[in-house]
Amino acid sequence: MINGVQRIAITCHKSPDGDALGSTLALAHVLRRLGKDAVVVTPDMAPKSLDFMPGVRELVVYTKHEQRARNVLNDAQLLFCLDFNSMKRIDRLAELIEPLKIKRLLIDHHLEPDDCFDLSISFPEASSTCELVFRVLMQMGLLRFMDRYAASCLYVGMMTDTGGFAYSCDDPEFYEIMASIIRRRFDRIDLYNKAMNTFSADSLRLQGYALSEKMQLFPEQGASLIALTKEELERFNYSRGDTETLVNKPLAIPGIYWSVFLREDADKIKVSSRSQGDFSVSDICFKYFNGGGHQNAAGGDFVGTMDEAVERFHQVLADLFPATEQQSTEQSTQKSE
Ligand code: 5GP
Ligand code: MN
Prior knowledge:
alpha/beta, 337 residues, inorganic pyrophosphatase (n-terminal core), binds manganese (II) ion, 6-stranded parallel beta sheet, binds guanosine-5'-monophosphate, 12 helices
């Protein structure tokens, strides 16, 4: 497919994260070295926190450069879809892509991809789409085109999607791949600091506030809820990415294995959820929050008020743990008596 074409477009899910940007940018770097015109088109802006990634300035952002995005896609002869499993995950970009008569190639690690792709390279067990891009390049004999820019992009995706090499990286081959990437000699520590440990003062204060004032624990159910309203976010000059890792924090508490973070956006409540072990937040987000993702990291949207979203969370608790919920209802009946 690549050999037969010159102009290649690459896209990823909305609100791109380290893996979405890492995989698309890395692939673009390699394809350009192969002499192709490769352009990455994202549904919306990359977070400021990732603007250190090599190539990020050449992104064509649909919400910002609508006409350019149209031109790139209309001219493209092949489309790579990276790090998403459904056209719903690319927002209005889907309207542009659906009528295109070009081949669509998926490389992704989310569960149950749509069947609208001409070729699907889908491995939900992979750590990241970046890992899959590496494997594809290796099997195609293209690793010699992986320069240090491509390598550092892959590194960022493999690092961020595993929470800094904490989960989804049990496969020994993950580290063989890592070894090959690190041989490209980029500044690994600098990338770690920028991708994993850089927050603005506002962001740190917002996270401190969320943990100290807003985190609700439900020890009997092993659950945690943090809900931040628009007003609260504005108080801390919220900008995108500021609460990126907040949802993971409650899982540090022994006995808490399910965390939910609700963030009030302009037109909806953004849901973000994490778990430890067999508990599938992907199923929960699919069933209750119009979303999905991975077993231990998922998200979705809730259309309605924050109070209604919190109510929905309590409904999930009640459905999952009917016994404990009964108990609390009894308590409240007793109280009202
Ligand atoms: P985050 O909580 O970091 O926003 O997202 C974690 C994971 O959940 C993402 O990698 C993605 O797989 C999934 N996810 C987040 N938001 C949505 C959503 O709105 N819809 C679906 N289907 N998946 C989502
Ligand atoms: Mn990913």
